[in-house]
Amino acid sequence: IGGMTAVADSEALATLHRVFGYEAFRGEQEAVIEHVVTGGDAVVLMPTGGGKSLCYQIPALVRPGTGVVVSPLIALMQDQVDALRALGVRAGFMNSTQDFDERRMVEAEFLAGELDLLYLAPERLRLEPTLDLLSRGKISVFAIDEAHCVSQWGHDFRPDYLALSLLGERWPDVPRIALTATATRATHQEITQRLGMPAARHFEASFDRPNIQYRIVPKADPKKQLLHFLREEHAGDAGIVYCLSRNSVEKTAEFLSRNGVEAVPYHAGLDAGTRAAHQSRFLREEGLVVVATIAFGMGIDKPDVRFVAHLDLPKSVEGYYQETGRAGRDGQPSTAWMAYGLNDVVQQRKLIQSGEGDEAFRRRAAAHLDAMLALCETVRCRRGQLLAYFGQEADATACGNCDTCTAPPETWDGTVAAQKVLSTVVRLQRERGQKFGAVQIIDILLGKRTAKVIQFDHDQLSVFGIGEELAEGEWRGVIRQLLAQGLLAVEGEYGTLVLTEASGSVLRREREVPLRKEPKKPVTSRSGGSG
Ligand code: ADP
Ligand code: ZN
């Protein structure tokens, strides 16, 4: 095996030099490629811009047969294929934008063994004629891009991804590589399970984007705040401004244009021609601002995006990370700026309540939101917090390149409060074998004899009523921040609270838990205005 690995290795490196013209592999690329080239399954977690494409393109070139790439980004397939062809790679795609003849030609090339890479949309792959076609050719590797789309709890769920588990059943000898830039450890596990890749090796790159400066400011008059930010720090720079609604996208783009910032709107309500025109202007021009809903940006590879601004709160930390990650792919200093206020919280809660999905779905959405809120409210380094959310506990030292590092917010010592919460969770689990959500934990801390407290005899616990010094809202703040710091976790469809590995250090009094001071009415005092 050693010999084979060495051969595979040198072939991979030769391909990197010869085809792509790069000197060396980056980070995890080499290990991933070696594993897949030698036939292993892999789940790869790498941030945007980390270099995921080579992880499947090189195995596809080194192994005999065609590499089949499953991607939901139909709009980008043509560009991807063109870019590969320019490098001399024999690439093709099959999706709904093609006419019959074009598709026929790609099929013929595939069957003749004349394709190194074939891009397919998941909704096409699952069709029997496509599967039949694939069975008649030779496949080197299956790459499943944007693999987090398989997660029903994630923000990008695509039902067609669920069918991809059949790839392993039909082609047990073809290695599969699932790639994503957005996954918590839980989503990572879900990918493995739903795609049926229990033996896959996991590769995880650092999510740190040191050149991005993270800043979250209290929202007062968001459009004016944005304009000020752009004028002061990013005059003439290319950037993306995210808004939640089409209406605010239109209004913000107009407002910026009126005030001398070249800006165009982008949202799903615009016709395809306008959208394509705005996107290509953004890619080609140097200093254009695109004001967009989240419909914009997935897979966009513009290296010199200098800022990403959020005028509305993203629904999840994954979303925030992915959107802000579009800044600074060239490694140059960039800013992730967000204005956040009470209205954001109210609006998002309402969306969750009135939205589609069952109760379990709502709970998960609420948990995603809570994590996002915690990032907004954190007292610690925002970068550290982000990395901790993705299970990459950063050094305790501050990054020096985020707003909480440069202007630390007011804090209080929440160590004792944290110990009370964690002890309650521990008691329930150890003494009763039970897990509960935040509401019950807080009722116990406050010594409330609710029907549910009585039903479970929770007034008999030694921790019953030990937390009367704080109000319910303050306990919610404590719990939210513990979740944010990774000292507490949410589990399962009921959102029950459970300990994490890090909880022990608090219970053993080995560490302090600083918490951000909660304004009496959270954030309202600073958010009034038009937000
Ligand atoms: P991702 O899909 O993870 O967002 P890409 O695969 O698009 O990232 O790669 C991001 C950029 O980095 C691309 O421009 C790519 O050509 C470049 N890149 C990737 N790997 C290397 C490497 N080993 N050496 C130099 N540049 C690389
Ligand atoms: Zn920091």
UniProtKB/TrEMBL annotation:
<dbReference type="GO" id="GO:0006281">
    <property type="term" value="P:DNA repair"/>
</dbReference>
<dbReference type="GO" id="GO:0003677">
    <property type="term" value="F:DNA binding"/>
</dbReference>
<keyword id="KW-0479">Metal-binding</keyword>
<feature type="compositionally biased region" description="Basic and acidic residues">
    <location>
        <begin position="510"/>
        <end position="521"/>
    </location>
</feature>
<dbReference type="GO" id="GO:0006310">
    <property type="term" value="P:DNA recombination"/>
</dbReference>
<keyword id="KW-0862">Zinc</keyword>
<dbReference type="GO" id="GO:0046872">
    <property type="term" value="F:metal ion binding"/>
</dbReference>
<comment type="similarity">
    <text>Belongs to the helicase family. RecQ subfamily.</text>
</comment>
<dbReference type="GO" id="GO:0005737">
    <property type="term" value="C:cytoplasm"/>
</dbReference>
<keyword id="KW-0233">DNA recombination</keyword>
<dbReference type="GO" id="GO:0043138">
    <property type="term" value="F:3'-5' DNA helicase activity"/>
</dbReference>
<feature type="domain" description="Helicase C-terminal">
    <location>
        <begin position="222"/>
        <end position="376"/>
    </location>
</feature>
<keyword id="KW-0238">DNA-binding</keyword>
<dbReference type="GO" id="GO:0006260">
    <property type="term" value="P:DNA replication"/>
</dbReference>
<dbReference type="GO" id="GO:0030894">
    <property type="term" value="C:replisome"/>
</dbReference>
<dbReference type="GO" id="GO:0009432">
    <property type="term" value="P:SOS response"/>
</dbReference>
<dbReference type="GO" id="GO:0016787">
    <property type="term" value="F:hydrolase activity"/>
</dbReference>
<protein>
    <recommendedName>
        <fullName>DNA helicase RecQ</fullName>
        <ecNumber>5.6.2.4</ecNumber>
    </recommendedName>
</protein>
<keyword id="KW-0347">Helicase</keyword>
<keyword id="KW-0067">ATP-binding</keyword>
<keyword id="KW-0378">Hydrolase</keyword>
<dbReference type="GO" id="GO:0043590">
    <property type="term" value="C:bacterial nucleoid"/>
</dbReference>
<keyword id="KW-0227">DNA damage</keyword>
<keyword id="KW-0234">DNA repair</keyword>
<keyword id="KW-0547">Nucleotide-binding</keyword>
<keyword id="KW-0413">Isomerase</keyword>
<feature type="domain" description="Helicase ATP-binding">
    <location>
        <begin position="33"/>
        <end position="201"/>
    </location>
</feature>
<dbReference type="GO" id="GO:0009378">
    <property type="term" value="F:four-way junction helicase activity"/>
</dbReference>
<dbReference type="GO" id="GO:0005524">
    <property type="term" value="F:ATP binding"/>
</dbReference>
